[in-house]
Amino acid sequence: MSTLDQLDRALLAALAADHRATVVALAERLGLSRNTVQARLARLEASGAFASFERAIDPAPLGYPLEAFVSVHVRQKQLGEVVARVAEIPEVLQAHGLSGSVDLLVRVVCRDAHDLFRIDGEILAIDGVERTETSLSMGELIPYRLGPLLDR
């Protein structure tokens, strides 16, 4: 979806404020019919406007209270193979390709420092990985958000 109208933005802002809101609650909040809200949500979903709802699940209750970021330096010709292998590691939540001196930034969760050492070792063992630099997250200071962009 290339452009969002005012109603789409209002609907997304309402969802950002309460992602568990029902269609009926959204309709009441925005002064719209349930059918209008349902049709708009379906159109937004079909357009790819929604990211994975897995983002709303905290890994800590699953036994993974620690989070770390692993900067991965890769032999360029093997980037695709490395990404495919990194994706096989269950503790990898996310990975971004970067420009600059680091090729991949991998977000992982772990049970403790020993578990992080194991995960880092799994990444290092992938053919094409030259080296890693791991930083333990001390805490999320600004949670993932889109509200300010929607309000802009």
Automatic annotation (TrEMBL):
Residues 4-65 form the HTH asnC-type domain. One of its GO terms (biological process) is response to amino acid. SMART domains: HTH_ASNC. Signal peptide: none annotated. GO terms for cellular component: cytosol. One of its GO terms (molecular function) is sequence-specific DNA binding. InterPro entries: AsnC-type_HTH_dom, Dimeric_a/b-barrel, Tscrpt_reg_AsnC-like, Tscrpt_reg_AsnC/Lrp_C, Tscrpt_reg_HTH_AsnC-type_CS, WH-like_DNA-bd_sf, WH_DNA-bd_sf. Keywords: DNA-binding, Transcription, Transcription regulation. SUPFAM superfamilies: Dimeric alpha+beta barrel (SSF54909), Winged helix' DNA-binding domain (SSF46785). PANTHER family: LEUCINE-RESPONSIVE REGULATORY PROTEIN, TRANSCRIPTIONAL REGULATOR AZLB. This is AsnC family transcriptional regulator.
